[in-house]
Amino acid sequence: MNRKQWTCLALTLLLGALSLIVGAVVLIDPFEIYHQATVFTPPIANGTQIYSNAGIAKSYEYDSVVIGSSMTENFRPSQLDSLLGGRFVKLCVNAGTPYNHRQMMDMAFGTHDVRRVLYGLDVEALTYFYTQPKCEMPDYLYDGNLFNDVQYWFNQSVLARYIPACLRTLGTHDENQRDTMYTWGDPDVYTYGAQAALAGITFSSTPVEQGDARTQTPVLSQASKLNVEHNILSIIEAHPETEFIIFFPPYSLARWYEFYSWGTLHYHLNQKEALIDILLGYDNVQIYDFQACADIITNLDLYIDAGHYGPQINGEMAEAISRNEHRVTGLAQAQENDGLLCALVDQIVQAGSWPDTFVY
């Protein structure tokens, strides 16, 4: 065999091997970028969320989406289907920023006719820079450029870890995965209660300066304004036919006390009220505020830390939304809710500890 023949053979073998690798990734497709898995259980987990979301958004059948942070991960799409109508999937981003949430919505609207968006908004999220993601995102999975998928085809983890994991579950596709994906909060794994919820919190009866005081007319800061305009209002305005159900999640009162101790309580409430005032002007937006549900936020047995509630609360919020409970239809209503929050925080400050009982 001469040098030319050897070169041709080597190139043929190389191209063949590369084609086999690409074919295997596209055929098995662990992150469902090209088609939804039907004969194995894909590796959808919190650790793979930013990869799995791309495939869910592109390949799943749905007309409604859940958007938000870990506060939304324990929703059950099948329950939402039954209560609100449609077919839901979760496109949550744990600790995500509004920029991440916009990415998820752009992907959903770019591939499906979206009927409804259930969006959990965290008050702290508005403080992020409007183009700041949670972490470096695999943008090659989110764009429409097939050629840069080479980063998926020849990814070491995909080839060595995730494809073998898929093959090990061949024939055992989990039909309930739409509900169970990204969920957490199992009481056999997580500790609930006052000890967990109050861990690391130091109480004091010394008044804390709150910086920007609440004003009669709430106004967005420049950072919040950029986030709202670029990541929230732009997509609401671009899709007037879509119903946006935006809710503010019920962190425990311990988290609101933390905001107080950091001097940001009134600032966060001011920004929340300013956003609500703006959103009330859109006919395709419904707003729900669960943050002043005193029976929930003062019951630390429902929480694994100061902010995170268990799946039971997600289920109760879904029920409440279906009954139109805790819906905000005017700014005064939101301000009344926030006034109750401040009054409850004041009871902690006056006691210098977590009170045995709250008055509300």
Write the layout of secondary structure elements.
Blueprint: H1 3-28, H2 49-59, E1 64-67, H3 77-84, E2 88-90, H4 98-111, E3 116-120, H5 139-142, H6 150-153, H7 156-168, H8 177-180, H9 194-197, H10 222-238, E4 243-248, H11 253-262, H12 265-279, E5 285-289, H13 294-297, H14 311-322, H15 331-351
Helix pairs in contact: 2-4, 3-14, 4-10, 11-15, 12-15
Keywords:
360 residues, alpha/beta, elongated
Tell me about this structure.
- The chain is an alpha/beta fold and 360 residues long.
- 46% of the residues lie in helices and 6% in strands.
- It has a 5-stranded parallel sheet, sandwiched between helices.
- Helix 11 (253-262) packs across helix 15.
Can you give me a brief rundown of this structure?
The chain has 360 residues and is α/β, with parallel strands linked by helices.
